[in-house]
Amino acid sequence: DVTEIEEKEAQAKQEEQIMKEQELSNLLHEKRYLKALGLAISLDRPHTVLTVVKAILKEPEGRRHLEENVVRLRKDQKEAVLAFLVTWNTNSRNCHEAQAVMETLLKHEAPESLLHFSGIKSAVESLLPYT
């Protein structure tokens, strides 16, 4: 019977998730946005990433801080953010944040580099009607 083992594994995953959520909350409170962005992306939480982006943009010189943080993300993290911002861009409440992140990506990534992002074609097709 493996039920007990599976229950323990599920409980351990749930506890780990709670710990990561608490860590994310602490990072936001401490304004450590780069780590917060990385953690939210690794948790695959588009809304949380959006919350971090909004918090950055509320800061004085928020655009500059957003640029500094997005530029420092790894390629796979930038791909994830691109996928998230496609969804954000379709909602008028979140489109400004999506456009800010997209501007940063377009400004700091070479076109050849962007072509190697996974899902770039569908992202561009989805962004065009709303941009």
Automatic annotation (TrEMBL):
<dbReference type="GO" id="GO:0034511">
    <property type="term" value="F:U3 snoRNA binding"/>
</dbReference>
<dbReference type="GO" id="GO:0000480">
    <property type="term" value="P:endonucleolytic cleavage in 5'-ETS of tricistronic rRNA transcript (SSU-rRNA, 5.8S rRNA, LSU-rRNA)"/>
</dbReference>
<keyword id="KW-0539">Nucleus</keyword>
<dbReference type="GO" id="GO:0032040">
    <property type="term" value="C:small-subunit processome"/>
</dbReference>
<dbReference type="Pfam" id="PF08625">
    <property type="entry name" value="Utp13"/>
</dbReference>
<keyword id="KW-0677">Repeat</keyword>
<keyword id="KW-0853">WD repeat</keyword>
<protein>
    <submittedName>
        <fullName>TBL3 protein</fullName>
    </submittedName>
</protein>
<dbReference type="GO" id="GO:0000472">
    <property type="term" value="P:endonucleolytic cleavage to generate mature 5'-end of SSU-rRNA from (SSU-rRNA, 5.8S rRNA, LSU-rRNA)"/>
</dbReference>
<dbReference type="GO" id="GO:0030686">
    <property type="term" value="C:90S preribosome"/>
</dbReference>
<dbReference type="InterPro" id="IPR013934">
    <property type="entry name" value="Utp13_C"/>
</dbReference>
<feature type="domain" description="U3 small nucleolar RNA-associated protein 13 C-terminal">
    <location>
        <begin position="21"/>
        <end position="131"/>
    </location>
</feature>
